[in-house]
# Entry
Amino acid sequence: MVDGEALIARAPFMDVLAVSGNGRGVIASDRDGLGLATVIVRRGQLEVLSQRIRERFGIDLPRGNFRKEAQHIAFAGLGPETWLATSEMGGNDFSASLREEIGAFASISDQSDGYAVLRLTGTNIRDMLAKLILIDVHPRALKPGDVASTVASHIGVILWRLDDAPDATPVFEIAVFRSLAGSFWHSLTQSAAEFGFITS
# Structure
């Protein structure tokens, strides 16, 4: 940054190639603007935290690698008493609002600028994911609401499956550390090229 110049916010996938191969087998949507925060329960506070989240957001806090959503807010289980919370609105303000609601029972860390998130769908999405990541994405193995922490081309990612699209096409979201978004995008487009890759 040159002295006197202000930093400008940039979407993590703003300058990347938007089309690869021919067709529409894999479709990606940048989820820039999501509010994201990690939530780690304080010692002995799991039950009261669960009750508070149920009362405030109408969500039964997942126990395990599952994702529950209501009122445009979701909690995805990442490990023992640890979740990634997401909000469709609020951006960086989301973590501050969470602290007000549940900060007495959990440690909250803003991740809105730490992760880049893509929504992935398309008729060949499972074929592409089978090339990219190390876990089974067959519908029997990864059902709507399931969450997995895994590796995509040597890059750590968090993957969760959403409800299918109206045409029964599977829908996934994948989060990667923002600093690795360019490398991840390269691997993604290479894996998707044979099926046709576009952004929406």
User: Anything to note?
Assistant: The radius of gyration is 18 Å.
